[in-house]
Design goal:
There is one protein chain. By secondary structure, the chain is α+β, with helices and mostly antiparallel strands. The chain is 16% helix and 40% strand. Strands 8-4-10-9 form a 4-stranded mixed sheet, sandwiched between helices. Strands 5, 6, 7 and 11 form a 4-stranded antiparallel sheet that branches. A 3-stranded antiparallel sheet has the order 1-2-3, with no helix packed on it. A hairpin with a 3-residue loop joins strand 1 and strand 2. It is globular and about 60 Å long.
Length: 186
């Protein structure tokens, strides 16, 4: 952006706090968070599967959610969220989805099986772009979730749920809405 100053106010291990100034556009110090580790690019996956439970004909699908502690949301309890990961600088978005699905949930899928649901932003105080995906895991065998070796990831796991309203992550709801818009019926 011509005539724009993007100043780093604070830099941490994974993120930086920045300020934008563009006098011509009336932007006199817009502060925001930037995720440096992934250049502001995150993938989010909301897998689903057909549930053959005859009793639950009103809801024939289950959803795979991540159950983990997210310290900035709550350090006293785990919360349900989508499966997420940063797109490492130089990596491909789709390859990152395949890696995170295997790493966090233990499922191996192909690029052709992924359903791209578009992008979204999280909040107006962050420039992060979220790439949303879903995949049908109805006939997939669950393998070992290898994790990335971090303590928090070692304490987390994925769970199949029949009601996404247990999630506290807005990416779950955005993905669900877009799944219905794409013609995946629930």
């Amino acid at each position: 952006m011509e005539n724009t100053i993007d100043e780093i106010l604070h830099k941490g291990n994974f993120t930086s706090y920045r300020k934008l100034i563009n006098k011509e556009k009336g932007v006199n110090g817009y502060e925001y968070l930037h995720e440096d580790r992934c250049n502001g690019n995150i993938i989010s996956i909301l897998p689903y599967r057909l549930n053959n439970d005859i009793v639950r004909r009103d809801n024939p699908y289950d959803f795979l959610l991540r159950y983990e502690m997210t310290p900035c949301w709550d350090m006293e309890k785990n919360v349900y969220s989508s499966i997420t990961g940063g797109v490492d600088i130089g990596d491909d978005v789709v390859e990152s989805v395949l890696k995170e699905l295997k790493e966090e949930a233990g499922y191996t899928v192909t690029k052709d099986e992924l359903i791209y649901l578009g992008t979204c932003f999280g909040t107006k105080s962050s420039d992060t772009t979220y790439y949303l995906f879903t995949v049908n895991l109805s006939y997939k065998e669950e393998g070992e979730a290898t994790g990335d070796g971090s303590y928090l990831e070692d304490q987390a796991h994925c769970e199949w749920v029949d009601d996404i309203s247990v999630a506290e992550d807005p990416l779950v709801y955005t993905s669900f809405y877009r799944m219905t818009r794409e013609g995946i019926t629930f």
